Amino acid sequence: MTAVFTATAGFLSAFSSNFALLVILRCLVGIGLGGGPVLSAWFLEFIPAPHRGTWMVVFSGFWTVGTVLEASLAWAVMPRLGWRWLLGFSALPSSLLLLFYGVTLESPRYLCMKGRKTEALVILEKIARMNGRTLPRGILVSDSQIELDELSVSEDKELLSPSASGDVPLGQVESSQGGISLLVTLLSPELAKSTILLWMVFFGNAFSYYGLVLLTTELSGGQNKCIPAELQLKKSHDVSYRDVFITSFAEFPGLILSAATIDKLGRKLSMSIMFFLCCMFLVPLVYHQPQGLTTGLLFGARTCITSTFTVVYIYAPEIYPTSVRTTGVGIASSVGRIGGMICPLVAVGLMHGCHRSLAIILFESVLMLSGVCVLLFPFETKGRQLSDTVPRSKLQNSFT
């Protein structure tokens, strides 16, 4: 559904007859893109815990690949064919996603939670055949079933990892429940702290990420000084797609940093270090710097914020049980989008109003607050098995 929504609205926007229709269709594209957490949560549930961080970084890397390819496409298409062709070509990747729908496996955890164990077992057997393995003997069990039936299953009979004995069952949140019920679950005593902190980190991450992308345009290419608003408006039409293409490559070092640290230092420490490093890169920009130094500092800051963005999208699905995993990440991502929308109005607005130092200080404050929130997360998820249930506070504290 997200692929259909994104591709259809994206393709139709190329034929917009007026600006209002273009804005409406691009908003619909944004709604479709909001379904992205479904992909990450689905992929996460197929990866063994010891390698989850590394493979999720690889998964996130395709965001950066898409960013670079889109910048390349704009560089090639816009000067020659115009924006309509760019929007049309940009809709193709989402439509190609539909070709893989027929071979995409459903999550066995989801099927078990819905009581469709036969279908889950068929998928697990298919996965075992593809990997040249055989399934362990025994019955297929899930965390919620163990808790509800008070079963004791030995390790050699598990096909899906059970939780620790201190878990509190959620009552298997059904898909028929409305959004209010799911939100209540996310704000339950067991999840409230993690949920609120996650919303703050997503907000700060998106605010800073998109702010740094915009700052690259504001502070690069000779726009290092305050100029009148009418001249800024005139220059805004002169976009250097070559510079956009080059600065997009700043995200690749961020991915490398994420891959190198996430399974060694853990999710929390990796994110907090990158948030604070990003602050350090931005400190000199409070004052005017030479163009070369400005570009280097922005490159380093964007590398760090890309790393935190990558890690938080890995950490977020790991802290939620299967029953609310995608919903939890989706709502957190939505809060992040609010940060992305506010950023141009506030921070970049300050830049245009010749309040450069105040804008940089604002970014510094948001980054510092986000780093502190990361340190306050109740538990680390490195090497921890996914769960269908919510850990009790004392269990969470053991992972701190």
UniProtKB/TrEMBL annotation:
The chain crosses the membrane at residues 20-44, 56-77, 83-104, 196-215, 269-287, 293-316, 328-351, 357-377. Belongs to the major facilitator superfamily. Phosphate:H(+) symporter (TC 2.A.1.9) family. It comes from the Eukaryota. Keywords: Membrane, Transmembrane, Transmembrane helix, Transport. It is found in: Membrane. Its main location: membrane. It is a multi-pass membrane protein. Residues 1-382 form the Major facilitator superfamily (MFS) profile domain. This is Organic cation/carnitine transporter 7. Gene3D superfamilies: MFS general substrate transporter like domains. The gene is OCT7_2.
